[in-house]
Write a structure and sequence with these properties.
The chain has 425 residues and is an alpha+beta fold. 28% of the residues lie in helices and 21% in strands. The strands form five sheets. Strands 1-10-11-12-15-9-8-4 form an eight-stranded mixed β-sheet. A hairpin with a 4-residue loop joins β11 (315-323) and β12 (328-337). The longest helix has 19 residues, at 277-295. It holds the Pfam family tRNA-synt_2b.
Length: 425
């Protein structure tokens, strides 16, 4: 990604030294002020609490912000991307660079003790005990696949069953979805099933694809339907395997379980009235934060910039957890409000209730004439993406002897197991 563009400042201009600014006493350049947003370069989180709430003023931290080269002004390319996708929220950051986001909040005060004396990653011998790239795996499946074994299998099942149990308590209907769908449904949900950079596996000789997320089959469950107003909101939590080509993904930052071609995931999905979608977006991110906090993870919540959104998303929050093995935060979930982007393409409408009809008809003076149907809004959020959750647990809950503490919430789903220890050979 280039760091200069139409109307954008060059990389050399943006790489200002914080010490030079302090010593010269010169004000921050107007051009930089107009393009900068909340800048985060503090992995453990020592920034003032006032920057952690939604709608707060942008924080420019001179000691940590300027060494990063990732700043970029809004470009024509970003504007075209937004025009092609869903309209974006006016109050959210509108820049394209990876660090152009609002840091909404984190839970560092709650779990500071949990990351006090952690190693750089889980003990190698223990990791090999839990999952392994067998010598035959390259011949069986290829790269970026693995076999889970021993307690890792129990951990995956425990994570799914625990998260499913917690989310269904909040009124979500559980689903197990098909994992092969038509290419047309993939496209209508806002994903590209073809092309050089596609993340979608296509089934050769057919119009079908493997799903990259349960969002796709759940989004299509009410395709070409008119829903009664009384049925909204419809809340689903869906379990599926997900398949992604991960085109272009390589390097140490994506090694191991962090980025793989096949994984298990629990996805939340909501169909609702347009006026309610912002409310349910907040509900979804609240559920995610509640789940991760109950496990004792150290995480932060981000309001993503428009340039980092996929085509369907009007607004997206990401949750990133601290991963000692990477030495940085890594994304473990997201929550997106897609407004009517998907519902228009999938043909999902709702018919307002009779009381709404009467009110509108009275205003129009048309007696009993019916009110036209409207498109629902759709929202999706990750309840549990298993591989990255396993990474977080192995790396953040390892003790000095190399064993790993099983979070209390997961123990009933693992037969009461509270410690994962290296097996004696």
């Amino acid at each position: 990604m280039g760091l200069s563009g139409a109307g954008g400042a060059t990389l050399q201009t943006l790489r200002l030294s914080s010490s030079a600014i302090r010593h010269r006493g010169s004000p921050l350049p107007r051009r930089l002020l107009s393009t900068a947003t909340t800048l985060i370069a503090d992995p453990i989180g020592h920034l003032p609490r006032r920057s952690l709430h939604r709608g707060g003023p942008p924080l420019l931290c001179l000691d940590t912000a300027f060494p990063s080269p990732a700043l970029q002004a809004t470009t024509v390319q970003a504007e075209e991307h937004e025009a092609a996708g869903a309209a974006t929220a006016s109050e959210k950051p509108r820049w394209k660079a990876a660090i152009d986001f609002k840091w909404i909040r984190d839970n560092k005060d709650v779990v500071a003790a949990n990351i006090k004396n952690r190693n750089s990653g889980a003990d190698l011998e223990l990791v090999l005990q839990l999952y392994e790239k067998y010598c035959s795996l390259q011949q069986v499946s290829g790269s970026k696949f693995c076999y889970l074994k021993n307690e890792a299998v129990l951990l995956e099942m425990a994570l799914i069953n625990w998260a499913l149990s917690e989310v269904t308590k909040k009124g979500f209907t559980p689903l197990i979805t098909p994992e092969i769908v038509r290419s047309s449904v993939v496209e209508k949900c806002g994903f590209q099933p073809r092309g050089q950079n596609t993340q979608v596996y296509s089934v050769e000789g057919s119009d079908q694809c493997l799903i990259g997320t349960a969002e796709i089959p759940v989004g299509g469950i009410h395709m070409d339907s008119i829903l009664p107003d009384s049925s909204l909101p419809l809340k689903y939590v869906a379990y599926s395997h997900c398949f992604r080509t991960e085109a272009g993904a390589a390097g140490t930052a994506t090694r191991g379980l962090y980025r793989v071609h096949q994984f298990s995931k629990l996805e939340m999905f909501i169909f609702c009235r347009p006026e309610d979608s912002d409310f349910y977006h907040e509900e979804l991110i609240g559920i995610e934060e509640e789940l991760f906090a109950s496990l004792g993870l150290h995480f932060r919540t981000l309001d993503m910039a428009s340039g980092d959104l996929g085509a369907p998303a009007y607004r997206k929050f990401d949750v990133e957890a601290w991963m000692p093995g990477l030495g940085r935060y890594g994304e473990i979930s997201s929550a997106s409000n897609c407004t009517d982007y998907q519902s228009r393409r999938l043909g999902i409408r709702y018919r307002p209730s009779s009381s709404e009809k009467e009110a509108v008809s009275s205003k129009r003076g048309k007696g009993n004439s019916s009110v036209p149907t409207q498109f629902v809004h759709t929202l999706n959020a990750t309840a549990c993406a298993v591989p990255r959750m396993i990474v977080c647990l192995l790396e953040n809950f390892q003790q000095e002897d190399g064993s790993v503490i099983v979070p209390e919430q997961l123990r009933p789903f693992m037969g009461g197991l509270d410690i994962i220890s290296l097996k004696l050979k």
